[in-house]
C-alpha cells in the first residue's frame, strides 16, 4: 500500500469515489479541501479530506476519512490519519484536529496519536487533537461518552471492551 498526497486545499484537488464502496464519497468531489489517499495496486482503498481551521490557520482540520467497505478494520484509516498529521506538521501546522461520530472512528484516531479534547461539535461528534499530551489519560473518558448514544449491541460491547489507549501506529512511508 502506498500513501499519496493529492494536494493541499489551495491546489483544489478532487477525487471521485464510488458511493457504494465509500462513506462520504460525495464530500471528496469538493475542491475546497486537500486530499490524501492510500492506494493498493493502483486502486484507492482509503481517503482523507482536510483544510485549515476557519478560525485558526495554524490548525488543520481533517474533515472526512473513509475506508473502502471491504477493507475496514485493517488499520488503514489509522495509518492514513497518522501520515496526514505528520505531513501537516511538516507543513507548519501546530495542531491537527478531527471530529468523529462513532467509537470505531474514535479508536482509529486514537491509534493515529490523537487524544480526546473533551469538546463536542455537531450533533454527536467528539473532537480529538494532536498533539495530545494527555492522550492515554483521556482515552477512556472520551470513549465512554458514546454510551450516551443509542448503540447497537456489537458497538456497545466494543466500547466496554476497551480499557486503555491503543498503541500509536506507524505512518505510511512517504
From TrEMBL:
Gene3D superfamilies: 3.40.630.30
InterPro entries referenced in this protein's UniProt entry, alphabetically: Acyl_CoA_acyltransferase, GNAT_dom
Occurrences of domain N-acetyltransferase (ranges): 1-133
MF GO annotations: acyltransferase activity, transferring groups other than amino-acyl groups
Keywords for this protein: Transferase
UniProt-listed Pfam families: Acetyltransf_1
UniProt protein name: Acetyltransferase (GNAT) family
Organism, as annotated: Halapricum desulfuricans
Amino acid at each position: 500500500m502506498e500513501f499519496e498526497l493529492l494536494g493541499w486545499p489551495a491546489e483544489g484537488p478532487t477525487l471521485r469515489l464510488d458511493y457504494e464502496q465509500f462513506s462520504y464519497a460525495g464530500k471528496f468531489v469538493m475542491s475546497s479541501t486537500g486530499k490524501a489517499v492510500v492506494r493498493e495496486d493502483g486502486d484507492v482503498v482509503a481517503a482523507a479530506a482536510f483544510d485549515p481551521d476557519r478560525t485558526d490557520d495554524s490548525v488543520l482540520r481533517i474533515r472526512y476519512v473513509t475506508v473502502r467497505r471491504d477493507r475496514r478494520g485493517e488499520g488503514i484509516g489509522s495509518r492514513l490519519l497518522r501520515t496526514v498529521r505528520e505531513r501537516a506538521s511538516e507543513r507548519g501546522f501546530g495542531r491537527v484536529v478531527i471530529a468523529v461520530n462513532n467509537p470505531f472512528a474514535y479508536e482509529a484516531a486514537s491509534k493515529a496519536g490523537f487524544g480526546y479534547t473533551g469538546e463536542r461539535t455537531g450533533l454527536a461528534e467528539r473532537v480529538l487533537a494532536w498533539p495530545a499530551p494527555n492522550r492515554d489519560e483521556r482515552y477512556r473518558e472520551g470513549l465512554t461518552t458514546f454510551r450516551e448514544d443509542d448503540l447497537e449491541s456489537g458497538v456497545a460491547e466494543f466500547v466496554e471492551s476497551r480499557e486503555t489507549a491503543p498503541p500509536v501506529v506507524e505512518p505510511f512511508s512517504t
